[in-house]
Amino acid sequence: MASAAIDAVGAPIVERNIRGTSSGLLPDGTPVLYVPTFGEPAILSVVDARDGALISSHELTGMTTAIYTGVAPDQSAAYVVGTTPGAALFRYDTATGGFEKLGNPVPGESNLNRIAAFGPDGTLYTGTFPNGHAASYHPERGFEDLGPIAPGEEYARSMAVVDGKLYVGTGTNARFFEIDLATREKREIALPPAYAGQQAYVNEMYARGGLVFAFFSPAYAYGVYDPATGQWRETLTDVGALAPSAEIDGRAYLVGRDANLYSYDLASGERTQRTTTGPFTSEVARALGQADLGDPQWPGTTLVGIGLTGAMCHWNPVTEEFRSFDSQARGGALKVAAMGFSPDRQLYVSGFLTPGRAARIDPDSLAITQLAGLEQAEFVGTLHDRTGQHLYFGTYLDAGLWQLDETTDWQWGTNPRHVAGLADLGQERVAVVAGAGADVAIGTVAVKGKLNGAVSVINPAAGEVVHSLTPVPEHAVSAILHTFIGSRPALICGTSSVQLGAEPVDTDAKLCVVDLQAGTAHAVITPVVGAQSINQLVELPDGRVWALVSDSSIHEVTASQADAPEAYALTTSKVLDLFGEPRPAGAWGVPKLHLLDDATLLGNAAGQIFTITIATGRVNVLTEGAYATPDPIGDGSFYFADLTRVYRYRPDSPHQNR
């Protein structure tokens, strides 16, 4: 491929993607919401809480994700966390309108968590991932690293300050700690008995009226802790993962999982349902603030909500009036999570943690069509099953499998249709989907904080799980190839030890055989000591099998059957290093390896797009990017992504337009 054209297709998924907010006052008394959104770069919008008008917006340069905000007690500043790549705290000066990047309080940590906890002197407290540090920032003193909360805890996830004590919630093992800010003495406080040892995160935490509200996930419950008595007062169940409102006339307000509003009397603990029609959906209330609207028809303090895509709402505790309207909060381009072609040669694109948005690209015109409903799929691709070829999506958080009928219109919930979900089997994330004869095989990652991913074989016509097993204890399943070994149908599976919030004893990736008739695993081997993932398995035109390993090496895999029907053997031999030396290829789901034509493989690893000449093993690095996806037209063209943008690569063309 001596010359080529790279055409910029554009950002396929552009939307406001709002996951949090904080409310405050500007120096002139204007009530505002501070609204973060994803994008390239991520953006902080300052909008008028009264009508949603945009007052100002500020780019988090170099960051693509923004969720967490906080406001200094004296209203002098608002803060926002930017992540991916890396993590940094940003500060908005409400008096001058200045916006600055403060940096990372714990260098090397890849994520900062919630920033809703402030001391009375304006000190902001936050936590980190992956080493679970607590940290603080003060405008005069700068950053301070308070150290890890507890050995082995990856997330210092949530915090609150009450009477000189900092309360910290962890993940992916939910624990609750108290730190005396004067002496730095730390103690762990057991969760309520019904939740101790059962939860992954203390995912949210807020101080309200001298109490600490700690949100237990996945239970969807707020534990109410009283520092004055040192006891858990009670647990509020079936609540949404939203912050309780600030105190309004002795009450805090919470949104239930039924999208209704409930008041909680901070003195008596009385909980009262205030709405019955479920108006507080994520479309208008993904996050809550409050404001005095300065309108006699909306007296006192009014709750102000903002939804995933920027719609807002008002609800007044005195009049119980509700209204919704749009805001002018800015949006941005969202990160690509997966791409794949449908049988009718349309390219479908999923994004990371979207507000229910995907896209379809026509390869002839490069026109982009936005599609509603799909939040995040980490597998998109066409597979053969018992009824023909279909486009499948493997979704997060439900470890779901969805099948599209491309001959009819997209309508999320009916087309694509939900085939199966593996959440009830303790699975959360789909790493790979592959054909398995008449059925479909899914490789999954367990819920955060847990081990034991699975390979599951599903009859897509019936929506039935035929087999589901953990072929290698404590590992996720990251690569699958259907084949026949001898006369028996089987899967060759690759595993990954990379899982969120938990690490197995044996971190070396494995290869194994799953017998499809018996539903059992056999012949577990370690192809590369020190490599944590098998990223892809591909069958070559001559029947050989190659594996892409997470150290950016390619290995040939040979499977054989012994005398007994279910006795198998696997061996591997190294073919090549893609870059001449070991290099981290990337997490499961990102590195790819596909047949481009009968003589050539196309792949991506370590941020590079490459081809491999099968006969010689020659590697040709073409460009930077990820999610390399061959065009089924077969002319050597392919598509790839770079964060939020998609490109088309055309071989043997005279120019580049990237």
Provide an overview of this structure:
InterPro entries: Quinoprotein_ADH-like_sf, WD40/YVTN_repeat-like_dom_sf. The protein is an all-beta fold and 658 residues long. It folds into two domains: 309 residues, Methylamine Dehydrogenase, Chain H, CATH 2.130.10.10; 318 residues, Methylamine Dehydrogenase, Chain H. It is 0% helix and 53% strand. The protein has no helices and 58 strands. The strands form 15 sheets. Strands 11, 12, 13, 14 and 15 form a five-stranded antiparallel β-sheet that branches. Strands 1-58-57-56 form a four-stranded antiparallel β-sheet, with no helix packed on it. A four-stranded antiparallel β-sheet has the order 3-4-5-6, with no helix packed on it. The C terminus is likely disordered.
TL;DR of this structure?
InterPro entries: Quinoprotein_ADH-like_sf, WD40/YVTN_repeat-like_dom_sf. With 658 residues, the chain is mainly beta.
